[in-house]
């Protein structure tokens, strides 16, 4: 449903999924096919370019690890400008638009200017990553809660750590691969047991997906080395213990077969 505002132009926030184009929803695809303007983010596979209509104005507005093609203010201004000109604008975001996507700022400027918009949900890296671990965020009797954290700013914001000591579930950390040691130390300091499993998934949902495991105490000393230069997401909790055991077992077998060659 479009929000009930004066129809000048229209903006569809489309959740593009964690990278590969086949994880885009059918509804998202339909909006893209009918777009007159597309403002698109980083972390989406180049195959997305093939589904953009030839007639559409397509602008890359991605931000990755400090390399920003446009400021947030410029992106919001672009949205507004095209919508005011009566265009159907697709604002294509990575993962699900509502998860750490700066959606709030972009909605705000549209609301202030009476522009109608809609939000199309999609596959987040949060769920794509845990699928790569052959695991589940919730697990009966083991994990009944989920916390999703922004690893980039969390160290400076103490409010995000409140209540961690009684937490009974899975912690998911985005934008945290540069700070695995610090994050692991902090989680232990906040009461999460040192032997709790932690996993790093890179390129979730894609063909080049990788996963590596450790425990919080080991990760606080050694970190978990990245295997690719793709985006990575962290999972902490007992719900992934079975996957850690399978991974350790497979690694042992592979090391054994290497040493007997
Ligand atoms: C700005 S946040 C956007 C999250 C996005 N809205 C979502 O729902 O996945 C970007 C972070 O999401 C995580 N991320 C996004 N895509 C990913 C992928 N395919 N594999 C692993 N992590 C990913 C990484 O932690 C990355 O630094």
Automatic annotation (TrEMBL):
Pathway: Porphyrin-containing compound metabolism; siroheme biosynthesis; precorrin-2 from uroporphyrinogen III: step 1/1
Molecular function (Gene Ontology), one example: uroporphyrin-III C-methyltransferase activity
SUPFAM superfamilies, per the entry: Tetrapyrrole methylase
CDD domains registered for this protein in UniProt: SUMT (cd11642)
Listed InterPro entries: 4pyrrol_Mease, 4pyrrol_Methylase_sf, 4pyrrole_Mease_sub1, 4pyrrole_Mease_sub2, CobA/CysG_C, Siro_Cobalamin_biosynth, Uropor_MeTrfase_CS
Keywords carried by this UniProt record: Methyltransferase, Porphyrin biosynthesis, S-adenosyl-L-methionine, Transferase
Domain (Tetrapyrrole methylase) ranges: 11-207
GO terms (BP aspect): methylation; siroheme biosynthetic process
Taxonomy, superkingdom: Bacteria
EC number: 2.1.1.107
Zinc-finger among keywords: no
Pfam families in the record: TP_methylase (PF00590)
Family listed: Belongs to the precorrin methyltransferase family.
NCBIfam families noted in UniProt: cobA_cysG_Cterm (TIGR01469), PRK06136.1 (NF004790)
PANTHER family given in the database record: S-ADENOSYL-L-METHIONINE-DEPENDENT UROPORPHYRINOGEN III METHYLTRANSFERASE, CHLOROPLASTIC, SIROHEME SYNTHASE-RELATED
Annotated protein name in UniProt: uroporphyrinogen-III C-methyltransferase
The encoding gene: cobA
